[in-house]
Amino acid sequence: MTALEGVKVICVGQFYFAPYCSMLMARLGADVIKVEAPEGDPYRRLPTVDHDGFPIQFRFLNSGKRAIRLDLKQPAGQEILRNLVRTADVLVQNLSPGAMDRRGLGYEQLSAINPGLIMASGTGFGSFGPYAGEPAMDLTIQARSAIMSTTGFADGAPVRTGPSVVDFVAGTHMLGGVLAALFQRTRTGRGQHVEVALQDAIVPSLTSNIAGLLSSATESHERTGNRHGGLAVAPYNAYRTNDGWIAVLCPTDAHWRRLCELMGDPATDDPRFADMSSRCAHMDDVDAVVENWTRARPKDLLARMLVEARIPSAPVVTLPELLEDPHVRERGVLRTVTDEQGSFMTLGSPLFLSDSPMVEPWRAREVGADTDEVLTAELGMSVDDIAKLREAGVI
Question: Which one of 138, 167, 200, 287 is the catalytic residue?
Answer without folding.
Answer: 167
